[in-house]
Amino acid sequence: MSADTIKQIEFLSRALKAPRIRDAASRLADQARDAGWSHEEYLAAVLDREVAARDASGAQLRIRAAGFPSRKTLDDFIFDHQPALKRDQIIHLGGGLFLEQARNIVLLGPPGTGKTHLAIGLGIKAAHAGHRVLFGTAVEWVARLQDAHHRGRLAEEIVRLRRYGLIIVDEVGYIPFEQDAANLFFQLVSSRYEHASLILTSNLPFARWGDVFGDQVVAAAMIDRIVHHADVISLKGASYRLKDSGITTLPSARPENTAE
Ligand SMILES: Nc1ncnc2c1ncn2[C@@H]1O[C@H](COP(=O)(O)OP(=O)(O)OP(=O)(O)O)[C@@H](O)[C@H]1O
Ligand SMILES: [Mg+2]
């Protein structure tokens, strides 16, 4: 390539805000000449480098912005430890079709059975697939909605949240809410119903959610919307955290207290 052409490519790729085109252009030019690529093949290869790099950095940005408490992937999940769980179902969900269909996922089960791990793993997959994701515990979500409500901006906040393809609500059930939380939460769920996805995790079966939200009627209407288009997945067994500790039961793992 002549020096002028290289300069021109440099200038044009800066103008396009696509700096990797400049690097790829000269690197791939030699390869193209050696391998006898057509002009179209060369152009496609250069553009492909730019798009791949953008996708990867976009995914990293979305993962950082999601606010995950830790990085957990579906690949790290040991399915043998959760024999009741259908591996195929999780792999299928990881494909992200549920996001296109605005379906929800509910992960139920006692402490340490992998609910948060799976929720984060699915969230990371969603971020890679180009979806904006936000993670929070139920307590954090309620605080956020309460704050918007007090500022008189609840409606705007709920509309803004619709721009996220996936909202993850972790730990529904560990801490009971004040009364107005049920109404706030209901508005979030109902605004996303058939528009955008939610992943919820809970240690409690749906029958106990009324107690958590302090309002049986609102909880019932909320659950109705959540499960209408949803995969409800029950995790079972002893906590993974205690796996090597020799402890076999926890007080909160009694059947009447769990989602089983
Ligand atoms: N099947 C598994 N394979 C690999 N790691 C697992 C598995 N299950 C749980 N873990 C790990 O064990 C720890 C606890 O799991 P996690 O936080 O997902 O539990 P949880 O169901 O959300 O529990 P809690 O209800 O107490 O929040 C995490 O570090 C998680 O990565
Ligand atoms: Mg958890």
UniProtKB/TrEMBL annotation:
Pfam families: IstB_IS21. Residues 101-234 form the AAA+ ATPase domain. Keywords: ATP-binding, Nucleotide-binding. One of its GO terms (biological process) is DNA replication. One of its GO terms (molecular function) is ATP binding. InterPro entries: AAA+_ATPase (IPR003593), DNAC/IstB-like (IPR028350), IstB (IPR047661), IstB_ATP-bd (IPR002611), P-loop_NTPase (IPR027417). PANTHER family: ATP-BINDING PROTEIN RV3427C IN INSERTION SEQUENCE-RELATED, CHROMOSOMAL REPLICATION INITIATOR PROTEIN DNAA. Belongs to the IS21/IS1162 putative ATP-binding protein family. This is DNA replication protein DnaC. It comes from Cryobacterium psychrotolerans.
